[in-house]
Amino acid sequence: MTDQPHLTARDFTGVLDIAREAVASHLRSGEQAGPDAEVVSAEGTDGEGLVRATVTSDGRVASVDLTPKAVRLPAEDLAAAVVAAVNGAWDALAATVREKTRAQAAGSWDPARIMALQQAAAMRTGALIDKLASMNTAAGRVPRAGRTPNT
Questions:
Q1: What are 91-114's pLDDT values in tens digits?
Q2: Contact 43/92 with Cβ under 8 angstroms?
Q3: Cα separation of 79 and 18, whole Å?
Q4: What pLDDT, in 10s, does the model give residues 128-142?
Q5: Cα 115 from chain centroid?
Q6: Which fold has domain 9-107?
Q7: Virtual CA dihedral for 41, 47, 50, 56, nearest 10 degrees?
Q8: 115 near 123, Cβ under 8 Å?
Q9: Which long-range CB contacts under 8 A does 25-28 form with residues at least 24 apart?
């Protein structure tokens, strides 16, 4: 893990704050908003499995678990492993939220409702065209050929 950039405790705290706020902001703007929203969690690990982190959809880091080997790492390597685990958890959480959103969207697909909306839009568009044609006629212009007004 020595190929990771040197991270201080301040860097680590800043990264967590930015990530937490970004996820919380994204979830506030999406379908998770509201006091009754389900809190979803996800886990991530560093590449070597030394650190496991759990984050929640309300923007919190729920837990960070370290193996005994992780505790013996130099501070900068430990910090890098924690950052990797937390970022992995955020990625997993984002994937979970995307999948839930897709499933909810697919479940709300109602072909009959969409057909009714299309028919209503067509009727309104036809009424608009009829009104424009009558305005053209009243202004002394000839209406477009081939168009019969709706009745």
A1: 999 998 888 877 777 766 667 777
A2: yes
A3: 16
A4: 787 777 777 777 765
A5: 28
A6: Ybab; Chain: A; (3.30.1310)
A7: -10
A8: no
A9: 26/94, 27/57, 27/58, 27/59, 27/97
